[in-house]
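[Automated response] Your request has been received and processed.

Submitted sequence:
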Amino acid sequence: MERAVARLASERPVVIFSKSSCCMCHTIKTLFSDFGVNPAVHELDEMPRGREIEQALARLGSNPTVPTVFIGGERVGGANEIMTLHLNRSLIPMLKRAGALWV
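Generated structure:
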């Protein structure tokens, strides 16, 4: 299942593993949307094998498992890591390097 996560994580410059009922997931998706980033979003609670993917994310080190954000195919982390990068002014350059932003 980790291979499936890696495949999904590399389908776009930004990939978010989320749950439709998760408020922090909504916050992170909104942040990226406000930047003009169009991430691939995988709602684990709406996917047939979502539970298995969530367990694979946990094995890869995501705690909590959602949201989990991949940028450029690399796991960056969850809401805390994304907000820290944003506050450090590191997130936008990272998104540009990954090809998620052109401005």
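Summary generated for your ticket: The beta strands are 14-18, 40-43, 68-71, 74-77. Residues 41 and 65 are 14 Å apart (CA to CA).
If you did not submit this request, please reply to this message.
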